[in-house]
Design goal:
about 425 residues; mainly beta; 8-stranded mixed β-sheet; 7-stranded mixed β-sheet; 3 helices; about 25% strand; elongated
């Protein structure tokens, strides 16, 4: 009888242990995650409870999220037909990245240790209640460089919340200042003046000396840069007024750039070492071009200036060091009709006087329909003659069944 009781006790104990192991196994099962990439970001997906956490691409690496500079985290993600609610940002998710702005949805309730890194200048957190967060940055100095934008009704909650209160806190109902990315380009936006400046891939780095602020080019794969006159971010518009220092410096593949009329200045080293750039149009509102802006663009051949007033060239930096804006560029400068002398006589352009000329006119086709046997043209079809080096050739090419008689001056040659 005693042995029977002992056996029953052991059986009960084993059952409890087995139940405990099942509970642990179930707990581990709920924690099992599948790491997937959706859009630009990596997530750990937790199938049992339908949640997701933003995670790193490569842990503890400066290769983490290479090429990603602005992050807009969605509140939900869909993978293989299932929807997951994004509830957290894991420890070191964006550690070692070049990310400059992060938008956090209302669904996020937890953020892990060292989730962010240096270079971050904007956090937009749409959560009404501050998410629980561990130590945000590895370096305490970085807190002072970040502006946090939150719902206006929640400002005091964030100011009194651990970690969040160390940041510069503003309402997300107002225009934002900081470094952002829209499409393929980065900008420094000024919420006070509602302006924007195109900046380099490393907006937090100002650069120094004669080199870009990183050994890598600012936009290593960019071939065409169509800069808009206006950008939109967080429901506000910003006018693009400048191309900043080092903006496109050392972009080996850049072959075409469109600068909008809203731009008034081009910064130091802005296009330095863009060796594939052959032509550039400087729009009429540009009034200032800085030190070494187009230096070492060795394939640059045509610089077309649209302003009747020569933009001022500033070949000296803050240390009074001289740097030719177009150093080692074998380019010619084409100016608007009637402005040749203005450019030649402007002091900052005088060293380029021999290369300043009027733009050769391209071929024009004017189609006219004959009426009563005659073709007439109005003065609006005639362009002003400024280019004295390249004659304008007019050729008559009659349609089938018609023939050329003479020009208005009596000349009977068709060309």
């Amino acid at each position: 009888m005693k042995n029977l009781l002992i056996n029953r006790a052991l059986a009960a104990k084993k059952k409890k242990i087995f139940t405990l192991l099942l509970a642990v196994a179930a707990s581990v099962g709920t924690m099992f995650a599948e790491k997937v990439k959706i859009g630009d970001l990596y997530y750990n997906l937790y199938s049992p409870n339908g949640t997701a956490s933003v995670t790193y691409e490569i842990l503890d690496s400066w290769e983490n999220y290479v090429g990603v500079y602005a992050v807009n985290i969605p509140s939900t993600v869909i993978y293989q037909g299932s929807t997951y609610v994004v509830t957290s940002i894991e420890s070191k998710a964006f550690y070692g990245t070049r990310i400059t702005s992060v938008i956090i949805p209302n669904s996020v309730t937890n953020i892990g240790q060292y989730a962010f890194t240096m270079g971050l200048s904007i956090i937009i957190c749409n959560a009404n209640t501050p998410p629980l967060i561990a130590e945000m940055f590895y370096n305490s100095y970085w807190y002072s460089l970040v502006t946090l934008y939150v719902p206006s009704a929640s400002i005091n909650l964030y100011k009194n919340a651990e970690q969040w209160g160390l940041l510069n806190i503003k309402s997300n109902d107002e225009p934002i200042s900081g470094t952002i990315q829209i499409d393929s380009l980065r900008y420094i936006i000024d919420g006070t003046n509602r302006t924007a400046s195109v900046t380099s891939a490393y907006g937090w780095c100002t650069g120094s000396g004669h080199s870009p602020c990183d050994e890598n080019s600012a936009y290593p794969t960019l071939q065409i840069a169509n800069i808009p006159g206006t950008i939109y971010f967080n429901n506000y518009s910003y006018t693009v007024t400048s191309i900043g220092d080092f903006a496109f410096s050392a972009c080996p593949n850049l072959s075409s750039v469109t600068i909008p009329n809203s731009v008034t200045s081009i910064g130091q080293f802005a296009f330095q070492y863009c060796t594939n750039l052959s032509s550039v149009v400087i729009p009429q509102n540009v009034t200032r071009i800085e030190y070494y802006a187009f230096a070492e663009c060795r394939n640059l051949r045509n610089v077309i200036l649209e302003s009747n007033t020569p933009p001022t060239l500033h070949p000296y930096n803050e240390d009074n060091y001289h740097g030719d804006i177009f150093y080692r560029c074998g380019c010619d400068f084409y100016v608007p009709c009637g402005t040749l002398e203005s450019y030649e006589n402007e002091e900052s352009w005088s060293s380029y006087a021999s290369r300043i000329k009027y733009k050769p006119y391209p071929s024009y086709t004017i189609n006219k329909k004959a009426e009563n046997g005659y073709i007439t043209t109005s003065s609006t079809d005639i362009f002003t003659m400024c280019d004295t080096e390249h004659p304008v050739i007019c050729t008559a090419n009659p349609d089938r069944g018609c023939y050329f008689v003479r020009w208005a001056d009596g000349n009977t040659r068709s060309e």
